[in-house]
Sequence to fold (121 residues):
Amino acid sequence: MTRVFISRRALLVGSSGLLLAAPAIAVAQTSLTPAPSAPAPSAPTDDSLAKLSCDSSALTPADHALRESLEYVDVSPFGAAKNCLNCSYWLPPQDKACGGCTLLAGQIHPLGYCTSWELAE
Ligand code: SF4
Fold:
């Protein structure tokens, strides 16, 4: 059997390193804990968007014709996967929940869709 001698000094130096590292480990664990998140207070919910009605009364016949040619609808048949909110042509609303579109005139429903949909990057 082999005996290993560890001096008292070596033992104290080694253990003090662990003691010094303990606060750093505690801080690291604290920073890894995700902070509780709350939804943005002004962000509309999916439910409130579904009830939203966008006004198309000011559209000209040409505006309506373009909407029809692009098969615009207020409710996307693809759901959240493809709708105006995630389209590159979407113009976020200024003062109302209905937004706009760089291709179509008038108010555009955020959950709407047309055949020109293109994923926003
Ligand atoms: S191009 Fe079509 S899908 Fe995209 S924002 Fe305009 S209306 Fe919506």
